[in-house]
């Protein structure tokens, strides 16, 4: 299976960070663009609220999505989060007024990024055991790379924003295609029951405590890209 | 290999959003305060770096956009170094060093007057700030007495950080006057906030080392 490789897991997690942290980290360039061009009549202090709302929602969304992730809704988090981020960026490219920018970049992208935050951190720590700290460190480096994709000198054109949304969409497909998980039919109460990679080839189900093989599990269908 | 999403402890306790008992633990409260103060300052430089270059130093718009990329490029070696240094010197020590360095650099921002000095300042700031975000979650397991509460505590700590963002960025936005190019009030504000955060980290470090000594003597 393609998704079994650690390197690919790593690339997936880096692309997670590229996506949402990069956009928040690049907010300074959006701020100056709004100040000098798009929202000239709005005061800079008011414009700062866009970045504030985005920053707060990214963190609080991460807090709220933790229990959701614990219950096993990892794909739902990724699906809804990515859809919100991409929709927010495309709608941002159409925005001309302050309240529109606040709703799209502040709320839509902020909530979407918050949903992506927990899976991206938790997947790294669950995919790597021996060198977990280094893996998390490399994944957070994705923020800096994402930043360079998000900065757009000399000005933010609407075409640029739409192309950025396409890039985000591609990183999303990267993850969607590579998240394999097995669902144990024996455990009806839980959505997942996945085996423990640290146990090597001995796939013991953590929920029903029995040996899991392909007879009792099935892989969720993935879009064929 | 499959991401095993059921790795965490499956008690009802680990799934709660808020744990009132945590607020009676001084170490955790100090940690939340530290995060609150540090996150008042954390995002502000990234938000106003281009504005400062444009309206104070008179840089071209192309350069002021690129300065943000410079800041983030400078965080790359900082993030990687932070991990190696913290395995050698300890996580609270590295967090303290990083927050003091960041507080000093943010206060020194008021002295930046030319574009060249600004680029050097941005690079050093990025290097100093990078360990903050990497090391902050790593301290939580050290100050939790049980493994099951780590998730809840992590959430509460980040919630206090988000209140810091809610205070810091709008306040500094109000303190900045773009037309006259006056940024010093916001710079002093975030510098003091970061230094207050590092004072809290210093208390935390002292508390952790005291507890570790106590545990060592008991054993």
Number of domains of chain B: 1
Binned, the helix content of chain B reads: over 70%
Helix/strand-derived class of chain B? mainly alpha
> Please, what is the average pLDDT of chain A?
65
Q: Report the CATH topology name of the largest domain in chain A.
A: Growth Hormone, Chain: A
Order of helices and strands of chain B: HHHHHHH
Number of domains of chain A: 2
- Tally of separate helices of chain B: 7
C-alpha Rg of chain B, in Å? Answer: 19 Å
Low-confidence stretches of chain B: 1-14
Summarize the main sheet of chain B.
none
Q: What is the oligomer described by this structure?
A: heterodimer
Which outline of chain A best applies?
elongated
Number of strands of chain B: 0
Structure explained in plain terms:
The complex is a heterodimer of chains A (225) and B (219). Chain A is mainly alpha-helical and 225 residues long. Chain A folds into two domains: 2-178, Growth Hormone, Chain: A, CATH 1.20.1250.20; 181-225, no CATH class. Chain A has helices at 6-25, 27-38, 44-70, 74-92, 98-127, 132-150, 158-178; strands spanning 182-184, 217-219. The radius of gyration of chain A is 19 Å and the shape is elongated. The two termini of chain A are 15 Å apart. By secondary structure, chain B is mainly α. Chain B has one domain (24-218): Growth Hormone, Chain: A (Up-down Bundle), CATH 1.20.1250. Chain B is built from seven helices and no strands. Classes of the chains: A mainly alpha (225), B mainly alpha (219). Chains A and B meet through helix 1, helix 2, helix 3, helix 5 and helix 6 of A and helix 2, helix 3, helix 5 and helix 6 of B.
């Amino acid at each position: 299976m393609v998704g079994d490789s650690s390197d690919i897991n790593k690339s997936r997690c880096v692309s997670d960070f590229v996506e949402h942290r990069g956009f928040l980290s690049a907010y300074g360039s959006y701020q100056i663009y709004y100040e000098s061009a798009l929202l000239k009549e709005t005061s800079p202090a008011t414009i700062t609220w866009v970045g504030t709302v985005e920053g707060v929602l990214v963190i609080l969304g991460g807090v709220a999505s933790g229990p959701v992730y614990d219950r096993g809704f990892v794909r739902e988090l990724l699906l809804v989060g990515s859809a919100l981020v991409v929709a927010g960026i495309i709608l941002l490219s159409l925005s001309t007024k302050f309240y529109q920018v606040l709703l799209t970049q502040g709320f839509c992208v902020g909530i979407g990024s918050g949903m992506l935050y927990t899976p991206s951190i938790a997947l790294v720590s669950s995919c790597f055991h021996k060198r977990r700290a280094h893996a998390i460190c490399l994944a957070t480096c994705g923020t800096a790379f994402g930043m360079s994709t998000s900065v757009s000198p000399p000005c933010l054109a609407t075409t640029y924003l739409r192309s950025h949304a396409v890039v985000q969409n591609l990183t999303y497909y990267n993850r969607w295609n590579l998240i394999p998980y097995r669902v144990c039919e024996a455990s009806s109460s839980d959505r997942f029951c996945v085996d423990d990679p640290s146990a090597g080839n001995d796939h013991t189900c953590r929920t029903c405590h029995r040996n899991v093989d392909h007879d009792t599990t099935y892989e969720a269908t993935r879009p064929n890209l | 290999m499959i991401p095993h999403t059921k790795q965490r402890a499956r008690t009802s306790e680990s799934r709660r959003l808020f744990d009132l008992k945590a607020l009676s633990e001084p170490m955790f409260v100090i940690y939340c305060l530290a995060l609150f103060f540090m996150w008042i300052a954390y995002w502000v430089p990234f938000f106003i770096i281009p504005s400062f270059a444009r309206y104070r130093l008179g840089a071209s718009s192309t350069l002021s956009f690129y300065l943000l990329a410079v800041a983030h490029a400078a965080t790359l070696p900082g993030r990687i170094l932070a991990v190696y240094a913290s395995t050698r010197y300890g996580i609270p020590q590295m967090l303290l060093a990083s927050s003091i360095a960041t507080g000093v650099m943010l206060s020194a921002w008021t002295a930046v007057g030319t574009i060249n000095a600004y680029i050097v300042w941005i690079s050093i700031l990025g290097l100093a700030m990078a360990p903050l975000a990497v090391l902050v979650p790593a301290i939580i397991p050290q100050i939790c007495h049980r493994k099951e509460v780590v998730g809840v505590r992590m959430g509460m700590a980040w919630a206090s950080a988000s209140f810091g963002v809610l205070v810091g960025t709008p306040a500094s936005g109000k303190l900045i006057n773009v037309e006259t190019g006056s940024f010093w009030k916001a710079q002093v504000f975030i510098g003091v906030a970061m230094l207050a955060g590092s004072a809290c980290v210093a208390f935390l470090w002292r508390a952790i080392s005291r507890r570790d000594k106590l545990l060592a003597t008991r054993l």
